[in-house]
């Protein structure tokens, strides 16, 4: 890959490394959670907060952090976020109690939100030529697409060979190196200034609404969908978010100018992302649980079993995705990837209790390579309508829908699997058969979510020939869409 400026490859490497660290942190804990539970004495409900504390902070702060990056400077926000994330990782790595670990995970979420919210904004302003931008997005998306599976592999290796503390401590050298390289590599930007968009009321509404909404969703498994807790907090969250939308339509300097959503590809791409990532949780998390709880795999075995998926996703996103997008357009590539993921979920929905790896699981590891097509295409579409001064905001929005999708996947699919398992146990099924039946329902639901994502992509997203020039009604600008 050749870029005009010698600093841009280094900048791309720094941004990709930061993205990889964030994605890894979201998945690396999966296979280590049984060891953490044994060591620190977590209850099942308390154990879920190792993931939930991170999701609440990350998803709740992304939009605010993205806009602040536009205002104070994206490089400053990126460096500060990596510093917070690295420090919180050290705290998590030395934690000897439940409270400290959960607090450190929340801190990691805050740092991830600060850094991740501006990464795509920096990337699209660095690479302005369409072909180079496509290559850069493919490299960046490679880290995201493969990172989740690599996290499970690395988590299994570190947990078995060392102990679970190292899944967090490994972030220290990576974080310090990222900060050291980012200082000379990333372009200096002063930002627009706080006066250009310091919407304090809007920030309070969207941050509290998102945090409360994600908290409500991740607690569904404990309280149920129709409980007073879920319905009450859900209603408050929706009211806060509705108030935020009203505020953005009337504020002189809105936190999120609604013009960002006028692009069909931006709005549709974010919706497809929520649906797809909700479904992909079934692969990232539930397949690992199925291997350990039903097939009896250890942490290292589970990580190695997931390795073909990481390799396939990485190879597709890095070497194939950009070429296909250049030839057929991001929309066509997205549809192809979604159909591959749909086939993978349908295959998992029939996996037996005594599955053989080669016959029953390896084909899934190949089919999920569709994720290497989906994520780069969504990144292109999700950033396609953003002006340069809104790039951090669009990046924050794109990352926010990622976290909302993951949180919904955690709540909906875990709850469905657990409920079905309890039902089958009550009917006299063995524990292994009951667990498998629960996972079958979750995988079938994931297939339904992916089918919905295909429908949205077909009906909302623009065809390549129609998306070259999109008129922004509010500004009269022309923005490139893929």
From TrEMBL:
Residues 11-465 form the Major facilitator superfamily (MFS) profile domain. The chain crosses the membrane at residues 42-65, 77-94, 106-127, 139-158, 164-186, 198-218, 224-246, 267-291, 303-320, 332-349, 361-381, 393-418, 438-461. GO terms for molecular function: transmembrane transporter activity. Gene3D superfamilies: MFS general substrate transporter like domains, Multidrug resistance protein D. GO terms for cellular component: plasma membrane. The keyword Transmembrane applies. It is a multi-pass membrane protein. It holds the Pfam family MFS_1. InterPro entries: MFS, MFS_dom, MFS_trans_sf. Keywords: Cell membrane, Membrane, Transmembrane, Transmembrane helix, Transport. It is found in: Cell membrane. It comes from the Bacteria. This is EmrB/QacA subfamily drug resistance transporter. The lineage of its organism: Bacteria, Bacillati, Actinomycetota, Actinomycetes, Streptosporangiales.
